[in-house]
Amino acid sequence: MGQAQAVLGDLPSEKRQNFSDLVSALEERFAPSSQTELYRVQFKERRQKASESLPELGQSIRRLSNLAYPTAPLDVRETLGKEQFIDALVDSEMRLRIKQSRPKGLNDAVRLAVELEAYNKAENKVREGRGYLRQTNNDDELSRGEKITNSDSPNKDIASWMQTIEKSLSTLTTEMTKLKTSDTKVDLLIIKRDIPKVRGQIRVVTIVANLVI
């Protein structure tokens, strides 16, 4: 109030009674045109900072709109502030959704932005949880596949050994047939062969051929 009185005291007496002269003098003192232009540039170039919250951004834009357009009606400043707030947002998807919601003023735009930010954070946490569960399931399936592969290996070995034994029996049968035709007495002993453990038991195959002709 003291500064305003000083401005009034500096005016000539004939201008003190003229309202337009009073307004011009006060604007020249507290809101010079050069300063107003500077505020307008700052207002139009305002963007959201990395660590700046949405309410802080809205408050800063409101202050700049009042400084840049001090003589504009309140509803005009609200509209300008709303549009600049939306343009200042970093998230392009958030900008689009707020525009589609058609907020009435700056406060409404800030409220919508805060709600969208909270929703996006919640969605990100849900996606992270689903990704962790999916990775765990994949690891479990891989582990089960390795176990099945390892369990099939002994069975394959046993099958191979059984084929070897069958071949030996076939060879033995052939030799016995030859011995019968040659009237020779032979004692044949096939030494024991052990087949590795299958399901906790050891199967021992012993083939003894004792042929007396």
Automatic annotation (TrEMBL):
Superkingdom of source: Eukaryota
Protein name as it appears in the record: Uncharacterized protein
Residue segments, region Disordered: 136-156
